[in-house]
Amino acid sequence: MTQIPPISRRQFLNLSSFGLGGGLLSVNSPRTQKIKSLDSIKFALSWKAEAEYGGFYQALATGIYQKHGLDLTIRPVNPQTNSTQLLLGGALEFNMGSSLNIFKAIEQNIPLVTVASMFQKNIQVLLTHPGVGNESLADLIGKPIFISSGARFTYWPVLKQNYGFADNQIRPYNSNVTPFLVDETSAQQGVLTSEPYTIEQKGGFKPIVHLLADAGYNPYSFTITTTRNLVNDNPDLVHRFVDASIRGWYGYLDDPQPGNRLIKRDNPEMTDNLLDYSFRKLKEYDIITSGDAETLGIGAMSDERWKAFFQSTVNLGMVDSGLDYHQAYTLKFVNKGVDYYRNSL
Fold first, then answer.
1. pLDDT tens, residue by residue, 67-121
2. How confident is the prediction for the chain on average, in pLDDT?
3. What is the pLDDT of residues 26-66, one digit of tens each?
4. Which InterPro entries does this entry report, sorted A to Z (predicted)?
5. Which of 60, 110, 192, 268 has its CA 20 to 30 A from that of 48?
6. How far apart are CA 276 and CA 116, in angstroms?
């Protein structure tokens, strides 16, 4: 069994949501000046503005949040931003999370809760060169694999268990694709919507994409996280934010241009080509509307899937078996059905 070193509360705050210190970027509704009757809330992403956050920007650009009585500020983050501390301190109402991080929070008695999952499939991938015999993950046994240090505590234990990988295959990945391009036998980590595009541009070839969601690692990701206090004290506010965000995602998948304009305003380095590529991959792999979301609506979650992921982390020594994983999520704000969300666009 792979054992993960215990993480203290301070380590969780410093590592799982990036270190505190850097400034926050922000973008407010472009529609009007703030209206006093609207509830002002702040929502932190997990990175810079990209297509992966398109539904939130769409809801902002098209006035969906305002229709739900919300004056939203979206805050992209930089690597020095600790959104968990900001959430606990009341500087944010919501941020983005994942199943494993919320388990770690509950282990440390940090009162966070997941209220929706925008993605039904995790977009973490491994990439390989075509035509060299690495057509499947099983072909990678004994070969170099470039992964980040954080991957050792997330999907790497799953790949070791499912495919027989060994730690001596690990090579450090520091967001530089050059080592992968040079070594045709190697594999490299990435996310579906980004690194494959970069490799196509710099390497002149399309890498083989191995979606880890299909390889046994599929936690809920791109989740909406908030505090237990907000869920208990102001459930109406949570309801409105979740509903508006889900409706924004339906609108974005129908026509991403309003959201993309705000993404580019918030992230001047973002290009139309990358936005288009990312959007197409989200739809091609059915990242957002597959699984339970097909009938229950975007943002859907289930007790069964939370239980299955919890048990898998316990089996790998990633989470203590005594954890009350039910504290990590609530279903009261999701699963209302596709028609419910689409009828109010």
1. 999 999 999 988 778 888 999 999 999 999 999 999 999 999 999 999 999 999 9
2. 91
3. 555 544 444 458 999 999 999 999 999 999 999 999 999 99
4. NMT1/THI5, SsuA/THI5, TAT_signal
5. 110
6. 25
The answer to whether residue 284 is domain-embedded is: yes
Backbone angles phi, psi at 290, to 5 degrees: -90, 180
**How far apart (Å, rounded) are the C-alpha atoms in residues 182 and 288?**
34
Which run of H or E residues covers position 119?
A: strand 112-119
Write out the DSSP string of 209-253.
EEEGGGGT----EEEEEEEHHHHHH-HHHHHHHHHHHHHHHHHHH
**Position 214, amino acid:** D
Helices 257-266 and 235-254, packing angle to 10 deg: 110
Angle made by CA atoms 261, 121, 306, in degrees to the nearest 5: 125
Structural tokens at position 23:
């400034």
How many C-beta atoms surround the C-beta of residue 53 within 10 A?
27
CATH of the domain at 104: 3.40.190.10
Structural domain containing residue 186: 124-214
Contact criterion met (CB below 8 Å) for 171 and 145: yes
Cβ-contact 36, 69 below 8 angstroms: no
Is residue 109 within a helix (H) or strand (E), and if so which, with residue range?
A: none
Q: What is the largest CA-CA distance in the chain?
A: 62
Among 142, 109, 140, 110, residue whose Cα is nearest residue 126: 140
Residue 273 lies in a domain: yes
> Does 233 map to a domain?
yes
| Separation CA 113–CA 232 (nearest Å) | 11
